[in-house]
């Protein structure tokens, strides 16, 4: 086993402390990545605070990982020592079911194996990116192209692919009007990516307080959903709406913003069930859908696309001793737009 410095939490809501975890020795298909940066995703917070059910404590979160390959197994062909590499939300899957064979490992019938808070095929709990190194099968490692610095690349491994996947699948591009609901860690990536795809992009947010940011990031228009006239003014406007918010919203009102055959795709996950009025769907042959991350193939496609278009996340880099503070600030929506941990500070 390989001892690795990490930051872990011992129980729901407990502070993060410096500790040592163990990574497996390299197998023939494994790569060892020296982590440079690890993004903080809201999923990390929900898991670390026990808000999404069972958590395997002690927990080392982090599934937005960017670094450099420092060793490879004897059969590795995808990456070489010195390559820039990343790890996203999963580190394995069954590799046998229909989704896996189609390159959609995120929808593995048996359940993909998460980068943290999961049990790997070796029977040990997986440990995430709040650490100095990670060992991963080459099939679940990504190449980070030149042209994206590692700090702004890290959040692409979750936030970036979470928005790229639905935008790609539902055809965001020239001639399409796309709305992104919420301008946060996910939403700001949606604005950048949809604009680079060639779509006309609008932001729908509760207020106009982030309007200047939204327009700077590439939005063509910015609307406050708290204004009474917004939904009436924009009725029947959009081909695609991607909602990044985890709050319960008036689904009928948002569906009413879609054109004929438009789609509303949820990537946020509200705790309460969403009430969907049937006539808001059938009246315009509209679709309501959901999407999560992408498979490994699509994630690599996203990274290459972002490098080609000069896209990275908007980040605030922090030292590891500020993780608890960062969690509180994320919950308070006090970050623009993603915290990223400098892994050189993990050991303290």
UniProtKB/TrEMBL annotation:
The keyword Protein biosynthesis does not apply. CDD domains: CAD1 (cd05283). It is an enzyme of class 1 (oxidoreductase). Its cofactor is Zn(2+). Keywords: Metal-binding, Oxidoreductase, Zinc. The keyword Zinc applies. It catalyses: a primary alcohol + NADP(+) = an aldehyde + NADPH + H(+). Residues 13-341 form the Enoyl reductase (ER) domain. It comes from the Bacteria. InterPro entries: ADH-like_C, ADH-like_N, ADH_Zn_CS, CAD-like, ER, GroES-like_sf, NAD(P)-bd_dom_sf. Gene3D superfamilies: Medium-chain alcohol dehydrogenases, catalytic domain, NAD(P)-binding Rossmann-like Domain. Its EC number is 1.1.1.2. Belongs to the zinc-containing alcohol dehydrogenase family. This is alcohol dehydrogenase (NADP(+)).
């Amino acid at each position: 086993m390989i001892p690795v410095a990490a930051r872990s939490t011992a129980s729901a809501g407990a502070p993060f402390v410096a500790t040592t975890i163990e990574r497996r020795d390299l197998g023939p298909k494994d790569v060892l990545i020296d982590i440079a940066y690890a993004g903080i995703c809201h999923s990390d917070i929900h898991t670390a605070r026990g808000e999404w059910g069972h958590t395997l404590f002690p927990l080392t979160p982090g599934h937005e990982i960017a670094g450099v390959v420092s060793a490879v197994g004897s059969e590795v062909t995808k990456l070489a020592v010195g390559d820039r590499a990343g790890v996203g939300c999963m580190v394995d899957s069954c590799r046998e079911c229909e989704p896996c064979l189609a390159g959609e490992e995120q929808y593995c019938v048996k359940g993909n194996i998460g980068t943290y808070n999961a049990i790997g095929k070796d029977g040990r709990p997986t440990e995430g990116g709040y650490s100095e190194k990670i060992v991963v099968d080459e099939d679940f490692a990504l190449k980070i192209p030149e042209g994206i610095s590692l700090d702004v690349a890290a959040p692409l491994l979750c936030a970036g692919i979470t928005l790229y996947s639905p935008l790609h699948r539902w055809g965001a591009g020239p001639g399409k009007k796309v709305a992104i609901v919420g301008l946060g860690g996910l939403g700001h990536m949606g604005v950048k990516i949809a604009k680079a795809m060639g779509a006309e992009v609008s932001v729908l947010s509760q207020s106009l307080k982030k309007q200047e940011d939204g327009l700077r990031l590439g939005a063509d228009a910015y609307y406050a959903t708290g204004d009474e006239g917004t939904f009436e003014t924009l009725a029947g406007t959009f081909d695609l709406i991607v909602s990044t918010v985890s709050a319960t919203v008036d689904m009928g009102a948002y569906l009413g913003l879609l054109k004929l055959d438009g789609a509303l795709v949820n990537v946020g996950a509200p705790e309460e069930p969403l009430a969907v009025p049937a006539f808001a769907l059938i009246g315009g042959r509209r679709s309501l859908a959901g999407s999560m991350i992408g498979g490994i193939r699509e994630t690599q496609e996203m990274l290459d696309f972002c490098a080609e278009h000069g896209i990275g996340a908007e980040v605030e880099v922090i030292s590891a001793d500020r993780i608890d503070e960062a969690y509180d600030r994320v919950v308070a929506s006090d970050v623009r737009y993603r915290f990223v941990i400098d892994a050189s500070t993990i050991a303290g």
